[in-house]
Amino acid sequence: MLGAKGRIHDERKNNLGWDLRCEIDGRDRYVEVKSSRKKGSFTMTRNEREKLTKHKNNYMVIFVSNVTGHSHKVRVIRGLHEVAEQFAVKDFLVTQREWGQVEVASYDMETDWQEG
Fold this sequence. Notes:
The structure is a single chain. By secondary structure, the protein is mainly beta. It has helices at about 45-55, 95-100; strands at about 5-10, 20-25, 25-35, 40-45, 60-65, 75-80, 95, 105-110. The strands form 2 sheets. A 6-stranded mixed β-sheet has the order 1-2-3-5-6-8, covered by helices on one side. The longest helix has 10 residues, at about 45-55.
């Protein structure tokens, strides 16, 4: 999306089912940010899952794993609505088995995001 124009709205406190709403060239995108001390799973609320299935490809999850370790991984997960029915019901646990089935861009914080 090089050259795209937009705005980012912090909506974490509004309980809308996403953390950020990004207006890009007049179109809304919804971003939920998740983190885990370990590598594989994160939890979504019922509201987040409902919004994920409603907004489909306009909803993405940014998942930061291993947040307490030295090698953080950041994954941008799109298309998660395609496997939402497979989430475990306990607060909708999303394991790597589910998010591994959809489009994921992965970044290693030590090697990919060094300041320079």
